[in-house]
Amino acid sequence: MHDTSLASLTRDELVARMKDWGEPAYRADQVLAAMYKRRVASAQEMTDLPLALRDKLAGFPVHPLAPAGESGSTDTTRKFLFRLHDGRYIETVLIPASPALYGSASDRRTLCVSTQVGCAMDCKFCASGLAGFTRNLTADEIVAQVLAVEALADERVQNLVFMGMGEPLANLRNLEKALTILNAPWGLEIGARHMTISTSGLAPAVRKFAAFPLQIRLAISLHGATDDVRSRIMPVNEKWNIATLMESLAEWRRRKKQHLTLEYILIRGVNDDLEQARLLAGHALELRAKVNLIPYNTVEGLAWERPPFRHCETFRRVLTSRGVTATLRREKGHDINAACGQLRLKKEQEEGRNS
């Protein structure tokens, strides 16, 4: 376990720490303002604090990530590789503005955040799980991706999508703490409606997460409109099939104001026939959800392909003709292998790691 970083602490936890040290509560607010407003890199830069307190804080890094690599794209997508305290790696992707990306405004950048080292879901289109699952990320490792990318890119991020490496709802405790820090007025102050959690469909966790007080957006990686097609792509469907998932999403809709998004990666000859489109429209209308169509992003070592763009457009028109709001994402970062997990996989293979 890495030493506690300051980004792992809520305001209440930091106030308690200050009390233990005989410091007034307002010192906690000074620390938080230095971290999240002025974006200092170390306790020694918190010059409004007494030197003795800065010395005490020196043993606590602001955040635990170390930059380990970056790849840039011709469409200005940038992928960042970070090294963790245990020598593992995670990826975070900065995506240029796209009106099809969960309603983000055209001038806003979106950060795709990871929540686990690897992934245990074994989705057949995905690179995140190719090197296996290692562990959950801690809350500060999640928060730190935003701090680190903003420092490296020298710009602020207004939208977050938790659809990088890992299954966010399999790391619910750390995810909820990170969301609290990211949203809080004393934290990064990112609006709840500008954060989207993407899940492969862990129905019990969807129900539990529905009780989380923030109005976070939820996106479901559906990728198949029938159990036979979805199970071929996503093994999680064997445990919680589409009917069970739909029940949990109906509960989410009852408790949340935010609309749902159904994510659907189009894979040639696997899930792109137009009957799937017609059935997908039915699911979307039942949940009052919009659909985000994503042409498959080629992964080295996997044989699947993306359909021709013209067919993707036809698939979308089947949805819209039935009254479904459907967008077709023009995939960002295709030229830098931006599908989550590929950069991490290459790095760990170079270092001889197997899992």
Query: What is the strand arrangement across the widest sheet?
Result: 1-2-3-4-7-8-9-10-11-12
Distance N to C terminus: 18 Å
Give the % helix: 25-40%
Residue-averaged pLDDT, rounded? 89
Total DSSP E strands: 12
**Given the helix and strand composition, which structural class is it?**
alpha/beta
Assess the beta-strand content as a share of residues.
15-25%
Superfamily (CATH H level) name of the largest domain: Aldolase class I
Count of helix runs: 12
CATH fold assignment of the largest domain: TIM Barrel
* Low-pLDDT ranges: none
Number of self-contained structural domains = 2
CATH class (first level) name of the largest domain: Alpha Beta
As a whole number of angstroms, the C-alpha radius of gyration is 21 Å
Q: What overall geometry do the principal axes of the alpha carbons give? A: elongated
> Tell me about the biggest sheet?
10 strands, mixed
Order of helices and strands: HHHEEEEEEHEHEHEHHHEHEHEH
CATH architecture label name of the largest domain = Alpha-Beta Barrel
